[in-house]
Amino acid sequence: MFGYWLAVNMSFTAIGAILALAHPLNTLVSILSAPLTSLHPGIGIGMVSGLMEATLRKPKVRDFEQLGEDATTFKGLYRNRVLHTLLVFLYTSLLASIGNVVIFPILLSMLGS
């Protein structure tokens, strides 16, 4: 059961990082830290992946200056490093949560049998 939970949790986090076009090293770190952050109530996977993305792809002053303009276009969300960091945070958090919600009923059914 633990293996199923690990696989689903890590897979959904990986999908979130890939959808957000996170840095490859960030994707790997997110996958490896997803189970640990799911068990700790004070640290979320989005915090880890967002901080890692901001460290690997440091925002520039230009990104902050164009924040309003870039937020209105799909391409701008991925081009602007500030918004991109927020996307990585959002996608990894959201998909890791969905993964936990998906696997929970499956694990409960395994307990009954």
Can you characterise this structure?
This protein has 113 residues and is mainly α. It has one domain (2-112). The chain is 82% helix and 0% strand. The chain is built from 7 helices and no strands. It has helices at residues 2-19, 24-39, 45-56, 61-65, 67-70, 74-79, 81-112. The longest helix is centred in the C-terminal third of the chain and has 32 residues, at 81-112. The two termini are 12 Å apart. The mean pLDDT is 94.
Class derived from helix and strand content? mainly alpha
Overall mean pLDDT stands at 94
pLDDT < 50 stretches: none
Biggest β-sheet description = none
How many strand segments?
0
- CA-CA gap between termini: 12 Å
The helical percent reads over 70%
**Envelope shape:** elongated
Q: What's the alpha carbon Rg, rounded to whole Å?
A: 16 Å
Portion in strands: under 5%
Summarize this structure as a short list of keywords or feature phrases:
82% helix; elongated; 113 residues; 0% strand; 7 helices; mainly alpha
List the helices and strands and how they pair.
Blueprint: H1 2-19, H2 24-39, H3 45-56, H4 61-65, H5 67-70, H6 74-79, H7 81-112
Helix pairs in contact: 1-2, 1-7, 2-3, 3-7
Summarize the structure in short.
The chain is mainly α. It has one domain (2-112). The protein is built from seven helices and no strands.
